Description:
By secondary structure, the protein is α+β, with helices and mostly antiparallel strands. It contains 7 helices and 21 strands. Helices cover 27% and strands 28% of the residues. The strands form 7 sheets. Strands 6-7-15-11-12 form a 5-stranded antiparallel β-sheet. A 4-stranded mixed β-sheet has the order 1-2-5-3, with helices on one face.
Amino acid sequence: MAGLEEFADITQREQPLAPFTYLKVGGPAEYLVQPRSREELAAVVRRCLMEKLPLRVLGSGSNLLVRDEGVRGVVLRLTEPAFTRVEVKGRLVTGGAGASVSALISEAARHGLAGLETLVGIRGTVGGALRMNAGDRGGDIGQFVRSVEVLDSGGELQVREREELHFGPHRSNLDDPVLLAATFALEPDDPDFLVKRMRKAWIARKARQPFSFQAAGRIFQDPPGLNAAALIEQAGLARTHVGGAEVSDRDANSIVVHSGATARDVLRLIDLLRSRVRERFHVELELEIGVW
């Protein structure tokens, strides 16, 4: 098992990844590892570094496309309680990187702490949201970060303090192999007002997203001063499809994947959208979705 023998009880070989992603397509992980503790996770990371095994972390799979041929090396899933806890102390909220963004928001609101409620409806885990600085014009997650615990390139625990961190539109400088947890500094507010803002943000975000029963994913970053969905629509590409992959009729910057589709269908549709927008508007669409 390429040096992973001591982790046999938490390792699965050739494990399909499609069920763990929103798009529900793609091939297997060579090794899928699900650590039960921080110590076990650190040991896995150090072993991967020692054996020169590629290492990736899979969150909720909301912003990920896995190629049909699958992924070489180790894929980590941080789904155990050691990585999903959310704790509140005063006005500080600490969430494990494996916790869902919705769980983080709910716990903060339950304690009357404001700031994160504008992110309601954003899919994914805390770790994924931090790496891509999830948010929109209403605010982003990075503005509330006090510190982030990580495993560095040597598999050692480090704390990245606020002054070390940089967040921009859909990006951050968090490039350590594994994020463990983050602490957010929030402000007290009236719980009734919090609920009203959460409801407003939820309605606005859900109106722009594909239906929840559809296997779908947001594809491109918005170019500076422009809107990717509008560019795709203006290029006459609404509801365009390749194989089982189709441009969503609710958000042209999302691709809906139908039964029988493959990752190759999605990639071919992405290439088509990028080339048509480039030809029509001389704008290069950059991917927001990750491709493994």
